[in-house]
Amino acid sequence: MSSTSSIATVSLYPQQSAFLRLFALWYFATLMTVWNIAGHTFLGFEQAWIHPVVAVFAACATQILLEWVDARSVGRKPRFAGSWAKFANFLPPAAISGFACAMLLFPNDRIAPIVFASVVSIASKVLVRVRLENGALTHVFNPSNFGIVATLLLFPSIGQAPPYQFTENITGFWHWALPIAILVTGIIVHGFATGRITLCLAWLIAFVVQGVFRAWLAGNDWYVPLMPMSSAGFILFTLYMIPDPATTPIAQGRQVLFGVSVAFIYALLQLFHVVFGLFLALTLVTGIRGVMIAVWGQQAAFQAARNRVQSGVEAFPQPVSAAATN
After folding, report:
1. Angle of CA points 266, 271, 277, to nearest 5°
2. Which letter does DSSP use for residue 194 in this model?
């Protein structure tokens, strides 16, 4: 949550554009707000109204608190301080995570698990970070996905939201129009702002391939393992969970590898009858990627220090001031 973390996030957008980052965050936050209002009003979301409210509040409060603690620890100004614009632009990431946790978990009438999921989502951005080659810190896991997985594993009584709730109360034309609208809005933002269209396509193609293979392996019709693709929940996962710019590669080839890896891990989990396969697969792949980044970063730092020693320069760089990282 530090300034270096913010710099790292911007560096993972096309042209390292701060504008594209803010555009994507506000775009996602607005869509999630509209979708939750529509979902609880007439689409058929089965959670209570209080769940998205407390989820967003808990996520935002956690992000503000952790940013204040981090800023105090290094003697810098919190990123939300200074103006109302800075404060407003600081909140969309937390709001997105809160909405996602409230949409994708079903806690019956309990509130505490939703608060837990939201807090863990944001806390993971501070507790699990790796250092990039430019020296900036960035979080490893997709926040909302990590919070959802932690809640599903630690609260056996909590389940995944039923996929049918996203279109439960609409029929006919609207039963098709809503998933198409979600698909179009996701394609727009990833094509214009995040540069993750390649990742989405790689994931979809790999999902089809693994589904057809599993159908052949089990002697089923080819379309049976592909049924999840017909739900709005799957589209949500594909366009709003997997291609998180802060936790996925920006290079096209690595995007393909990332998407294929998630599909491969998902297939393995299905073969071993492990539930919550989509969320677990994404968590495992982002975790492995984080370990690889950390290892490469250590190797690069060691080689740089070795080169400095061999050239007669000091072994370690001078520390960068907090002001210089803002």
Report:
1. 30
2. I
Q: Tell me the C-alpha distance between 236 and 183, whole Å.
A: 8
Closest CA to 21 of 68, 76, 79: 79
Can you tell me the distance from the alpha carbon of 42 to that of 91, in angstroms, rounded to the nearest whole number? Answer: 27
What burial letters (b/e) apply to 24-48, b meaning 16+ CB within 10 Å? bbbbbbebbeebbeebbeebebebb
Spatial separation of the C-alpha atoms in residues 282 and 265, rounded to whole Å: 8
Residue 284: CB atoms within 10 A of its CB come to: 17
Answer whether 305's CB lies under 8 Å from 168's CB: no
pLDDT in tens, 85-143: 999 999 999 999 999 999 999 999 899 999 999 999 999 998 888 877 666 778 899 99
**Distance of alpha carbon 59 from alpha carbon 28, whole angstroms:** 15
Please write the tens of the pLDDT for every residue from 97-111. 999 999 999 999 899
Residues 6+ apart with CB under 8 A from 209: 263
Q: Which residues contact 288 (CB under 8 A, 6 or more apart)?
A: 261
Residue/partner pairs of 220-226 with CB below 8 Å, 24 or more apart: 225/270
Q: Give the pairing of strands 129-131 and 137-139.
A: antiparallel
Burial (CB count <10 Å: 0-12, 13-18, 19+), residue 82: exposed
Using alpha carbons only, give the angle 48, 142, 203 rounded to the nearest 5 degrees.
100
Query: Read out DSSP for 20-87?
Result: HHHHHHHHHHHHHHHHHHHIIIII---S-THHHHHHHHHHHHHHHHHHHHHHHHHT---TT-SSHHHH
Q: Which residues pair with 137 in a beta bridge?
A: 131
- Find all residues with CB under 8 Å of 265, minimum gap 6, and list them: 280, 281, 284, 285
Which amino acid belongs to residue 117?
Answer: A
